[in-house]
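User: I'll paste a sequence; please echo it back and then give the predicted structure.

Assistant: Echoing your sequence first, then the prediction.
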Amino acid sequence: MRELNWVYYYSNVEKDQNQYTHEECTRVGPVDAKYVKSSNRDFNNNPFIEALPRPRDGNVLLNAYTVPIPSLDADDLSKMSVNEQKATVVSLKNLRPPLSFQKQLEFINYDVIVSSYMLRKCLSKTNNFHCWSFFYTF
């Protein structure tokens, strides 16, 4: 068993904003964690939860999950080679209409991750910053 400790500071982010930029959210690979104080007291001082991006809501959520049908007109289609036409048809597999329960899915996913992270135990805290420790085995 090994103990991990680290120090982290909170980012100043508006309540309706996400602490991560679009570029950071779409990047392949790790990004530096940005911590935002949780509005839920049970989650405060838990770096696992406070580094999670906030769940999306409203139009942001709708735009994230909606992929429209590619626009084509008859002239464009007639100028395409057969392979280009096939590629256009294959691109329809990316079509995603918004689902009526998309918001519930977003929050269920968030809740599942948060529930897992709530099981981590905080061993030490100070007033200026937060030290988080937990034990794990290999």
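The longest strand covers residues 2-8. The radius of gyration is 21 Å.
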